[in-house]
């Protein structure tokens, strides 16, 4: 289990950022507008936004502090919500060709091309970054409070963290310190959770997400499997009892026979939720 968690923590994507020409000085070449970065799957892309802009500062028309609230990320014209984990965005938009149960090794070779857009008028659905890192941290902490409530029936374990522990928790994400992250998260997680913090993502143009209530067992007392959840949430996606798609998490195609608690334990994200991407065959 620890090996799987480490693979997930260390997983990263090669990304090429192309900066909008309206954001750079006249005469800046296409090459100068490109920035190649490697971003962990289990983080928010916006965590790296300020660093990206600072690397390109000499080409920018404005100071970094002036543009933070007026930029957003897109892929092929589709808005990338910064509040989705990076790996979730990739698996939802670019898909997965990995075999069942395997990490998609091609992800570490291919380069995901993303546009950094700029305008005074922001696109529909985008949440601007107005408080920089404080806003990102507050959102992430809110996610953990939700996850804690779902797991334990209250947010007490999360709210009981000392100020020092809460700071260490966030710092462990920024500095990629898994041991520190695990120490704090262990105080929130439950060995016998009431429900599973789950978010289902659909691979459609709206990046639809669904947050069902998922217990550990079915009404007859049997262990709840992923198949049971899909039958409850997406009954129209089954033909003669067969699911017409596949499910991806952390770059892995998962088995429909996996039980939900096991999936959560192995593949949960850094925000306390298990993110599952429900894909149609061929996407």
Task: Explain what you see.
The chain has 283 residues and is of the alpha+beta class. The chain folds into three domains: 11-126, Ubiquitin-like (UB roll); 134-185, Autophagy protein Apg5, helix rich domain (Serum Albumin, Chain A, Domain 1); 198-280, Phosphatidylinositol 3-kinase Catalytic Subunit, Chain A, domain 1 (Ubiquitin-like (UB roll), Roll), CATH 3.10.20.90. It has ten helices and twelve strands. The strands form three sheets. Strands 2-1-5-3-4 form a five-stranded mixed beta sheet, with helices on one face. A five-stranded mixed beta sheet has the order 7-6-12-10-11. Helix 7 packs antiparallel against helix 8. The two termini are 30 Å apart.
**Number of separate domains:** 3
Largest sheet: 5 strands, mixed
Query: What order do the helices and strands follow?
Result: HEEHHEEHEHHHHEEHEEEEHE
* Distance between the amino and carboxyl termini: 30 Å
Function: Involved in cytoplasm to vacuole transport (Cvt) and autophagic vesicle formation.
Family: Belongs to the ATG5 family.
Domain Autophagy protein ATG5 alpha-helical bundle region: 134-190
Protein name: Autophagy protein 5
Give structural attributes:
20% strand; Serum Albumin, Chain A, Domain 1; five-stranded mixed β-sheet; 12 strands; Ubiquitin-like (UB roll); 283 residues; alpha+beta; 10 helices; 3 domains
Write the layout of secondary structure elements.
Blueprint: H1 2-10, E1 12-19, E2 34-40, H2 49-55, H3 64-67, E3 71-75, E4 78-80, H4 86-93, E5 111-118, H5 133-152, H6 156-159, H7 163-174, H8 178-185, E6 198-202, E7 209-210, H9 226-233, E8 238-239, E9 242-243, E10 245-249, E11 252-254, H10 260-267, E12 274-280
């Amino acid at each position: 289990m620890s090996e799987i968690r480490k693979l997930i923590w260390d997983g990263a994507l090669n990304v090429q950022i192309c900066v909008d020409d309206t954001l750079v000085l006249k005469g800046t070449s296409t090459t100068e507008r490109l920035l190649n970065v490697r971003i962990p799957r289990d983080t928010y892309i916006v965590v790296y936004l300020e660093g990206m802009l600072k690397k390109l500062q000499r080409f920018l028309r404005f100071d970094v502090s002036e543009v933070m609230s007026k930029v957003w990320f897109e892929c092929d014209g589709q808005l990338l919500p910064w509040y989705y984990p990076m790996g979730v965005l990739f698996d939802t938009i670019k898909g997965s060709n990995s075999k069942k149960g395997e990490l998609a090794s091609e992800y570490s070779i291919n380069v995901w091309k993303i546009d950094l857009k700029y305008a005074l008028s922001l696109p529909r659905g985008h949440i601007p970054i107005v408080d920089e890192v404080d806003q990102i941290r507050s959102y992430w902490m809110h996610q953990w409070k939700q996850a804690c409530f779902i797991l334990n029936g209250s947010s007490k374990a999360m709210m009981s963290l000392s100020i020092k522990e809460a700071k260490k928790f966030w710092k462990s994400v920024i500095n990629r310190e898994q041991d520190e992250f695990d120490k704090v998260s262990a105080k929130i997680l439950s060995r016998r959770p009431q429900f599973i913090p789950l978010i289902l993502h659909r691979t459609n143009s709206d990046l639809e997400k669904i947050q069902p209530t998922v217990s550990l067992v079915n009404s007859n007392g049997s262990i709840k499997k992923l198949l049971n959840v899909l039958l409850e949430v997406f009954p129209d996606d089954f033909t003669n009892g067969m699911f017409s798609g596949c499910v991806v998490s952390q770059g892995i195609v998962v088995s429909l026979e996996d039980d939900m608690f096991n999936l959560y334990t192995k593949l949960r994200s850094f925000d306390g939720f298990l993110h599952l991407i429900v894909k149609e065959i061929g996407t």
